[in-house]
Amino acid sequence: MEKLFDINEQGYSIRCKLITKDNDKNKRTFSHVAIVTHGYGSNKDTAGTSKFGQHLTSKYKDYAVIAFDWPCHGADARKKLTIAECLTYLTLVVNYAKESLQADKLYIYSTSFGGYITLRYLIEVGNPFTKIALRCPAIEMHRTIRENIDDADLNKLKKGKDIQVGFARKMKIDQSFLDDLDAFKITNHEYFDFADDMLIIHGTKDTMVPIADSKQFAENNVIQFIPVEGANHPFQDPNHMALAIHKIVEFFRP
User: Residues 6 or more apart from 37 whose CB is under 8 A from it?
Assistant: First the structure.
């Protein structure tokens, strides 16, 4: 079962989706909650997120899934993207899972840009998660963003102007957004303390976020790494997505 709801805290309204087993629709608390974060330009309402939620909640007892829209994504009302607000959104969702759903154990499954935010969250905020699964994480997010901004827009940023970025939905960024990404690079930090509870999955045909970045990061931090042969960045092939979901659900075993 899927239910839309908002978390209204600190002047924010975070658009969320709760996924539970059908016969758990009247439950108000869950001992295990998995948070799903999407990639840059995506949203909480993807088929992959729904399939993951259905698989996880049907396999294990007393599990629920929360997916939510990052600032400026999906149904979110904000117009200008900042990393600080992304970190705040994740904190508020974590708090909701622990306080309102009374979760004893939290898990997180993050993709691409969501993977960058999750890895940054571990260092800057802390680790509330029992298990962490990353699919095609944007380890070099500063590079990924810059490669998708043309020279004209880069010049506008340098002059102090906002530019519009994104795909189906456009959002504003300014030079401080790029400066923030430059100031916090994942590869400048060690993740050994989280390695035993972390899994990285990446497609070998990813042309947006190179698999080599994830592979090197995993090797440097002794993190379990699973390459998926032929998979592209969004794992569009249903068989590739099914494999990723299966591996992550097994990893989240109670």
Answer: 67, 68, 70, 90, 108, 109, 110, 111, 114, 115, 117, 118
Contacts of 210 (CB under 8 A, 6+ apart): none
Contacts of 136 (CB under 8 A, 6+ apart): 39, 111, 112, 115, 201, 202, 203, 206, 208, 209, 214, 233, 235
- Give backbone dihedrals phi and psi of 9, rounded to 5 degrees, phi first: -145, 145
Q: Is 0.85 topped by the overall pTM? A: yes
Contacts of 90 (CB under 8 A, 6+ apart): 35, 37, 117, 118, 121, 125
Element (H, E) at 132: strand 129-135
Please classify residue 51 by burial: count the beta carbons closer than 10 Å to its beta carbon, then call 0-12 exposed, 13-18 middle and 19+ buried: middle
Structure confidence by residue, pLDDT tens digits, 46-92: 999 999 999 999 999 999 999 999 999 999 999 999 999 999 999 99
| C-beta of residue 70 within 8 angstroms of C-beta of residue 44 | no
> What type of residue sits at position 46?
T
Structure tokens at 156: 């506008």
Distance CA 60, CA 227 (A): 26
CATH architecture of the domain with range 2-140+185-251: 3-Layer(aba) Sandwich (3.40)
DSSP H helical ranges for the chain: 47-59, 83-99, 113-124, 141-147, 151-158, 175-183, 211-221, 238-251
- Measured between alpha carbons, how far is 208 from 218 in angstroms, rounded to an integer? 18
Confidence of residue 26 (pLDDT cuts 50, 70, 90): confident
